[in-house]
Amino acid sequence: LGELVFAGLGLFDELDMSLRALEEVKTADYVFAELYTSIMAGLSLENLEKIAGKKVILVSRKNLEDENGAMIISKASSAKVVFLVPGDPLIATTHIDLRIRADKMGIKTRIVHGASIISAVMGLSGLQNYRFGRSVTIPFPYGGIISETPYNVIVENKARNLHTLCFLDIDVERKRFLTVREALQSLLTVEKNKSQGVIDLDVLAVAIARAGSSDVKVKADRVANLLEFDFGAPPYLLVFPAGRLHFMEAEALIRFADAPEWIKEMVG
Amino acid sequence: LGELVFAGLGLFDELDMSLRALEEVKTADYVFAELYTSIMAGLSLENLEKIAGKKVILVSRKNLEDENGAMIISKASSAKVVFLVPGDPLIATTHIDLRIRADKMGIKTRIVHGASIISAVMGLSGLQNYRFGRSVTIPFPYGGIISETPYNVIVENKARNLHTLCFLDIDVERKRFLTVREALQSLLTVEKNKSQGVIDLDVLAVAIARAGSSDVKVKADRVANLLEFDFGAPPYLLVFPAGRLHFMEAEALIRFADAPEWIKEMVG
Predict the structure, then answer these.
(1) Candidates B20, B124, B131; nearest CB to A15
(2) Which residues in A lie closer than 8 A to residue B118 (C-beta atoms)?
(3) Mapped to the 3 state alphabet, what secondary structure does B109-163 carry?
(4) 3-state secondary structure of A255
(5) pLDDT higher than threshold 90 for residue A68
(6) What phi and psi values does residue A21 have, to the nearest 5 degrees?
(7) Burial class of B143 by CB neighbour count within 10 A (0 to 12, 13 to 18, 19+)
(8) Do the Cβ atoms of A88 and A7 come closer than 8 Å?
(9) Measured between alpha carbons, how far is A121 from A197 in angstroms, rounded to an integer?
(10) Tens of pLDDT, residues B22-62
(11) Beta strands in chain B (DSSP E)
């Protein structure tokens, strides 16, 4: 009988998978990978295959959604299949759906966890885990329409003195990545329409580029300055801190995110 | 010149560290580890040293907080030090403090991320990432006093139709772990005093034991049934789902957390 193991690739390149994930790959009959739910900037299929010591079959969004992951499920019904996924593997709804479909076919499934941006952002920014409200994705404008949801989530979290993690939309197959600048401009456009004075040029935000790489950039500043800052290559994300900071959060932002000294006035 | 690398050990045992973390360990002059901020049930110092190929110096909470991590900082001022920490390494405030102190001494610091319970819980439960409100720790009763904070956070999140991740307090050095039953009883005690009708015996909760191990247990049920359920060895955590579930969340809970069929009525 077969089984389907969802294994996380972590954040940046092939070295971010765990020793356990590698062990699962080594004993797999088939190894599939998807690289479209996140960008792993340092990872190449060649290097992945070298480390795995076997062929890794890349699946596209189309393979997985349109053709219902049928290939993966069909192999997993009689062989050990490892499906490699960026980050921690079952954060994406797509893959939960695949797991449910495999289970319906009587295929045993397991998860091998990997490092995720969800926890990485806390360590990189120094902003504290239990002070994050719900997170949100800032999407590409769709047909010129800018979604108000990210703005509303930030407002709602700020009202409760909580931080907001904002994922920036990506379209890996078209090599499009919403930039920090585009994301901030979306929010400022909504602010302009709503005039609630919550996200303006003077508010503190934290932008992170290339989390997990040796070239990670973490920058905390007024929105006005982040708009002008060159973050280099993707992936990106944004955090809008709560209006009040813990003193250790402020200190971490100043030391590790090059935040201006005036953020000390936000401590309290 | 020295440097201090904070590297994550992940969730369960020594195989949960990443290939990158192992590479950092192999090139380190000194390797320290702490095993008190989380319990890694499958990990032993011996196995860790075997994989590392070198001595790993275990530091206690006392070493790190009372003596201000002076030993680690003193070594890192002139040598490469890797500090191994359960999960993703800089979630705990203690270690952010150590990083700040090292930086003040002019020591370069870096983070090698690891799998964290914060993202693992989403994959294990099937509850969706962007539907989690802020998280909270359910503490041991202190001097017989039960904290109302966890109850209040769950109420606040439920009012906004959000899930709540509850960490269960641990005292690794005294080998004490708040159990699922104790945590639920704390919440029911607060409910009894407040009579808000938010957490009663009929409400849905999800408990997870030994995340990251092959022996992981994920169980969704009414509080009344979870109170009686034997979860085996720690670590544990609890999730209180929002009042309304996405249909795929309900399906995942039924398939992978043995939830009762009536939770389908919560879809909407």
Answers:
(1) B20
(2) 116, 118-119, 122, 129
(3) EEEECCCCHHHHHHHHHCCCHHHECCCEEECCCECCECCCHHHHHHHHHHHCCCE
(4) helix
(5) no
(6) -60, -40
(7) exposed
(8) no
(9) 26
(10) 999 999 999 999 998 888 989 999 999 999 999 999 998 77
(11) 3-8, 30-34, 56-59, 80-85, 108-112, 136-138, 164-168, 170-171, 176-177, 204-209, 217-222, 236-240
* Residue whose C-alpha is closest to residue B121's, from B211, B205, B181, B232: B211
Query: N- to C-terminal Cα distance for chain A?
Result: 58
> What does pTM read for this prediction?
0.96
Phi first, then psi, for residue B146 (nearest 5°) are -100, 125
Confirm whether the ipTM is greater than 0.90: yes
CA distance B268 to B266: 6
Task: Look up residue B90 and give its amino acid.
Answer: L
| Closest Cα in chain A, distance from residue B110 (Å) | 8
Q: Which member of B88, B97, B134 has the closest CB to residue A119? A: B88
Report the distance separating Cα A125 and Cα A195, nearest Å. 29
| The amino acid at B150 | P
Q: Which two tokens stand for residue B19?
A: 């290939």
The rounded distance, in Å, linking the Cα atoms of B251 and B256 is: 8
A116 phi and psi angles, rounded to 5 deg: -125, 150
Over range B73-91, report the average pLDDT: 96
The token pair that represents B178 in the structure block: 């708040």
- As a whole number of angstroms, the distance between CA B159 and CA B141 comes to 26
| CA proximity to A33, closest of A178, A172, A213 | A172
Length of chain B: 268
Which of B66, B74, B80, B84 is CA-nearest to residue B109? B80
Q: Which of A1, A5, A11, A2 is nearest to A211 (CA)?
A: A11
Cβ–Cβ of A256/B103 closer than 8 Å?
yes
